[in-house]
Amino acid sequence: SSQMWQVGKRQASRAFSLYANIDILRPYFDVEPVQVRARLLESMIPVKMINFPQKIAGELYGPLMLVFTLVAILLHGMKTSDTIIREGTLMGTAIGTCFGYWLGVSSFMYFLAYLCNAQITMVQMLSLLGYGLFGHCITLFVTYNIHFHSLFYIFWLVVGGLSTLRMVAVLVSRTVGHTQRLILCGTLAALHMLFLLYLHFAYHKVVEGILDTLEGPNMPPFQRVARDIPVVSNAVLNTTAKAIALTL
Amino acid sequence: MSNFEQFHFDFYQSNTIDDQEEGCNSYGSNENFYGSRKNQSGDQAPDGAFALSDRPLSSQSYTGQILQPTCGPSTLSNLGYADGFDEEPPLLEELGINFEHIWQKTLTVLNPMKPADGSIMNETDLTGPMVFCLALGATLLLVGRKVHFGYVYGISAIGCLAMHALLNLMSVAGVSHGCVASVLGYCLLPMVILSSSAVVFSLRGIPGTLLALLIIGWCSLSASKIFTSALAMEGQQLLIAYPCALLYGLFALLTVF
């Protein structure tokens, strides 16, 4: 059995040496809390100077935490609205959506930037898009809890628009040529704003009637009707059962 | 009778040669050698084996699991177990469960304002965390949810892996998986308090949300306090506290909904 131990140790050390490659990412996580806060606030302020390249911090801690925050907000929104995902899990869907957006759109924009000759590296693109998700987090956090459609549209335009403008301005400052600037910035703006719209409408189905029984009569009534009939009957059964149990 | 003595000699002999690096798990592996070396001829000198009979006790000492500096062969003979193997350590010590340390760590978690001692997390102790996970699952059962043990273990496992990766990236000195799992498991205790309060009153609504936020803050403050003191990452406590808060927020989501 000592041989088995040796073999096992060798395999484990091989796996660990693979894992040791994680050290490449080490310099991107070397941040102070003050820096993170400053960058978060800056991500909502569009820069005015687009004539010389704007500095982008190549840091991955802030973007990673923002993506995880977005996952948490999505999960919370799905749970408060009793969204049922038919194929898959809530957690998997939330993680897949957020990480898919961050990594996928960053790669796509990096590819476009390569085509349009923009001065930006992959880490910088990841960082820029990650910090751009701060606006999404704020909007969704507010509108998943306060359910007014007009409020959402205002937040979408103002908050989403500000963070998109910041990203666009930074990209414009790093690209030459009008057509290239238009392609890059148009794509990024469209994708970013549409993602916020998608997140709001796809993950927060509001079911009329259930909210009234759970949270009392102080919530404003809604015009939207439930799409899934089994969900409604299931939830109605559950609520009546809970109400009966409470009165016992 | 002579066969029995032969086995005895082989027993001690194999112990000293092969188990030098095994430390406290040598008792279990001795059984294997006992079986495999049954047919060896008695080439070893008998008095050599007798002289070596003290060595198995020290190589069987359990310094790996419990930090008890004064434990040695002399204290073992004082334990006096009547059934045959005098040198067998007590079960709890052999398993590495030290109630005093568990209690100390629990007190550290329960009082987030008390500065943590960095050395208490040197030993990987998963007993306390396991107890707290089971307690969380049990209180969730009491609240009336579906059986959620799988979710608790799954979220714990993935959360430990993610925190381990993040801490290794952010700190100069690395951490082991066991240390991260141990700390995160201990700081789950306030979450058990939250789910027990869910038995008494429903957590949906403003008071429930506020209580959940308070408990999440408590858990993440304790965890980040222990991590920063163990890894000497002063000034970055908030940066560690935030991912911990996200992880415990998931547990709170499980408890509330």
TrEMBL record, chain A:
It is found in: Cell membrane; Cytoplasm; Golgi apparatus, cis-Golgi network membrane. The keyword Transmembrane applies. It is a multi-pass membrane protein. Signal peptide: none annotated. Keywords: Cell membrane, Cytoplasm, Differentiation, Glycoprotein, Golgi apparatus, Membrane, Transmembrane, Transmembrane helix. Belongs to the YIP1 family. This is Protein YIPF3. It comes from Pitta sordida. The gene is Yipf3.
From TrEMBL, chain B:
It comes from the Eukaryota. It is found in: Membrane. Its main location: membrane. Residues 26-43 have a biased composition (Polar residues). The keyword Iron-sulfur does not apply. The keyword Plastid does not apply. GO terms for biological process: endoplasmic reticulum to Golgi vesicle-mediated transport; vesicle fusion with Golgi apparatus. The chain crosses the membrane at residues 126-144, 151-171, 183-203, 210-233, 239-256. Keywords: Membrane, Transmembrane, Transmembrane helix. Residues 20-50 are annotated as: Disordered. The gene is Yipf7. Belongs to the YIP1 family. This is YIPF7 protein. GO terms for cellular component: membrane; trans-Golgi network. It is a multi-pass membrane protein.
